[in-house]
Amino acid sequence: MVGGHRLLTPEEIAPHEWDAVIATNLRGTFLCCRSVGRVMLDQGGGAIVNVRVGEPDDVVGAVLFLASDAARYVTGVTIAVDGGWLAR
Hints:
- By secondary structure, this protein is mostly helical.
- The protein has helices at residues 15-43, 56-66.
- The two termini are 17 Å apart.
């Protein structure tokens, strides 16, 4: 499930399902990042790591790295931590 929705191929997803995915995953992520970003500006910095797929044990390594000082020069990239789903 992604954002409360099943993972579907483009051939399987109906337009109203796509709209719901966009409303949840894109708009929801934007609104959360905007709110957290305001706090981060007041605090002088921070890290936002958006993770949508996987169990905590699957993504913990990548999240710890991205939230650490070791990744302070990493910005605006997508790191696929998806168990190979994108490679299918």
